[in-house]
Amino acid sequence: MRQRAARDQKRLDSGAVSSPKDLENLQKEIASLAKRQGDLEDVVLEVMERRESAQERVAELTERVGSVQSKIDDATGRRDAATSEFDSEAANITKERALVAGSIPADLLALYDKVRAKQGGVGAAKLHQRRCEGCRLELDITEVNDIKAASPDKVVRCENCSRILVRTSESGL
Ligand SMILES: [Zn+2]
Predict the structure, then answer these.
(1) Regarding beta strands 164-167 and 124-128, do their DSSP bridges make them parallel or antiparallel, or are they unpaired?
(2) Residue 17: what pLDDT?
(3) In which domain, by residue range, is 20 found?
(4) Which residues contact 78 (CB under 8 A, 6 or more apart)?
(5) Sorting pLDDT into bands at 50, 70 and 90, what band is 125?
(6) Number of folded domains that form the chain
(7) How confident is the model at residue 4 (pLDDT cuts 50, 70, 90)?
(8) What's the gap in Å between 98 CA and the centre of ligand 1?
(9) What is the pLDDT of residue 110?
(10) Distance CA 90, CA 87 (A)
(11) Does 7 lie in the same domain as 65?
(12) CA 95 to CA 56: how far, in whole Å?
């Protein structure tokens, strides 16, 4: 468009166009080309402004993605550390349990495992102040008397939840 306007201007300036009608047409065309050029320049400016604001938005979003990603990385790291801590703790407890289980008579261990499976993972409970710490129920007097009379070696169990009761000096017997 600029080239065309320059060409028109050159023709106008050269004096080669002499008819007033042609001269007028040429001037009109030059004016219209200048106007279109101005309009297009406005469009270009607007597009550049929009591109700039889009680039700013991209930069902002990229930064947010980076910050969220670093939070994810941090949380993942903490989760992995906690998982490995739990795993090693579980391995230790399993080892300790095996040691303790090895010192318990086989029939008592079998009973314990059977009750434990039925009672949500707790097969034995302390008898504390005449209360079964497994089901939290207080034993009735007959039960207490039976346990009192039982020899220390006898395995006594809660009548309510059937857990093995562990007698201590605080059992209230
Ligand atoms: Zn009980």
Answers:
(1) parallel
(2) 80
(3) 2-72
(4) none
(5) very high
(6) 2
(7) confident
(8) 25
(9) 96
(10) 5
(11) yes
(12) 59
User: Can you tell me the distance from the alpha carbon of 25 to that of 34, in angstroms, rounded to the nearest whole number?
Assistant: 14
CA 62 to ligand 1 centroid distance, Å: 60
136-152 mean pLDDT: 95
Can you say whether residue 19 is alpha, beta or left, with left for phi > 0 and alpha for psi between -120 and 50 degrees? beta
CA distance 55 to 61: 10
- Beta strand 131-132 with 124-128: parallel, antiparallel or unpaired? antiparallel
d(CA 147, ligand 1 centre) in Å: 14
The pLDDT of residue 1 is above 90 = no
Decide if pLDDT at 142 tops 90.
yes
Tokens for 141?
């007097």
- Tracing tokens 């008397």 back to the chain, one arrives at 145
pLDDT value of position 130:
96
Q: Does residue 98 belong to any structural domain of this protein?
A: no
Distance 43 CA to ligand 1 centre (A): 84
Tell me if 96 is assigned to some domain. no
DSSP 128: E
